[in-house]
Design goal:
The protein is an all-alpha fold. About 75% of the residues lie in helices and about 0% in strands. The protein contains five helices and no strands. α4 packs antiparallel against α5.
Length: about 150
């Protein structure tokens, strides 16, 4: 009888856990030291993208602040609308401007995130290619070309 993982009542995207199939926390034979070295290597690559990540987070934070201001403006307009009072034209224009600013900040945040991801991807690929070049053609001849290509890509 094999041990199976029972689905938890919490939402999960792990299809093996949902199907009741046995799930191993770590594949057999995986070197923990190698895992730590790879994790350290990836963290070093993330350090190259700190500026881009900070810009992306800052733009998202600014967008959140504008959303709060927009909600405050709309909260001021709704009672006047319900009561049938005259609407403050300046408040309407500011609420509309807040929508445009949020759209612009969201787009800028998205662009910054994509560019940061592209920089990190290019740096990782360059490191992998230089490591493969250092190993030489004899090492590459022992490997399947598809395996090497999928590693680089």
């Amino acid at each position: 009888m094999t041990d199976t993982v029972q689905p938890t009542p919490l939402a999960t995207t792990d299809t093996a856990a949902l199907s009741g199939a046995p799930v191993a926390s770590r594949p057999q034979g995986v070197d923990r030291g190698a895992e730590r070295r790879r994790a350290k290597w990836l963290v070093e690559r993330a350090g190259q993208a700190r500026g881009g990540m900070a810009l992306t987070l800052g733009l998202g934070y600014a967008s959140g602040l504008v959303a709060v201001a927009q909600a405050w403006m709309i909260a001021g307009l709704i009672p006047a609308l319900i009561a049938g009072d005259d609407l403050d034209a300046a408040l309407i224009w500011m609420a509309g401007l807040a929508v445009l600013v949020r759209v612009a900040l969201g787009a800028a945040s998205e662009v910054a995130g994509v560019r940061t991801g592209q920089k990190v991807t290019a740096a990782v690929r360059a490191d992998v290619l230089s490591a493969l070049a250092a190993l030489g053609p004899s090492w590459l001849a022992e490997r399947r070309s598809g395996e090497v290509v999928s590693t680089v890509i």
